[in-house]
Design goal:
single chain; 73% helix; extended
Length: 191
């Protein structure tokens, strides 16, 4: 029973320190709620969100919660848990909404046949006036080492497993580099 009162008192002191601008107390307060943070991490899956992203969001939410929390009303643990869980749910909702965009815009083949709809014609992309070789030179000048390796894997010049082992990175990291590469290619080659 004494340890609960001590932890509660310690929590109150940490919240007061954060309110007074002592940011070092934030790490200690987050450490008290590490089990809660880990539970939320395990309950909600967000595509391309790793453990560090969750920890950073938990830290930001903890700081904001401590600043806004009224010590006279309720328990901080309940307040923080609610805010962290709501944030996780918002991330999941956003991720799911993004995935459903194509589904919302599509219609079934039967509906298209009933309404005598023909397939949509793809927009033709204008041919850039700058020679392609110059655009490629501009593109490669703006790529990081990881993005260059992702390009080599995509072109089939390097083996993905070899790159993962040589650079000591995860598949997710290489996938993110590939996404950045695609964005840079669109921006450089199509504009």
């Amino acid at each position: 029973m004494k340890s609960i009162k001590k932890a509660s008192k310690n929590e109150t002191e940490l919240i007061m320190q954060i309110k007074n601008g002592e940011e070092e107390a934030l790490i200690d307060l987050c450490y008290l709620y590490k089990p809660l943070i880990n539970k939320v991490k395990s309950m909600y899956h967000v595509r391309y969100y790793d453990s560090q992203d969750w920890d950073q969001d938990a830290l930001i939410i903890c700081h904001d919660s401590a600043k806004k929390f009224d010590l006279k009303k309720g328990k901080f643990s309940s307040y923080y848990k609610t805010r962290l869980t709501n944030h996780a749910k918002s991330l999941v909702r956003y991720d799911n909404a993004y995935r459903r965009q194509a589904l919302k815009q599509s219609i079934s083949l039967e509906t298209a046949r009933k309404n005598n709809l023909s397939p949509m014609k793809k927009d033709s992309t204008s041919i850039p006036e700058v020679p392609l070789s110059e655009n490629i030179a501009i593109l490669t000048a703006h790529l990081s080492n990881l993005e260059i390796n992702a390009l080599l894997v995509e072109l089939g010049l390097k083996n993905q497993d070899e790159i993962l082992h040589r650079l000591n990175i995860s598949e997710l990291t290489l996938s993110r580099a590939h996404s950045r590469l695609a964005q840079k290619m669109r921006k450089t080659l199509l504009n």
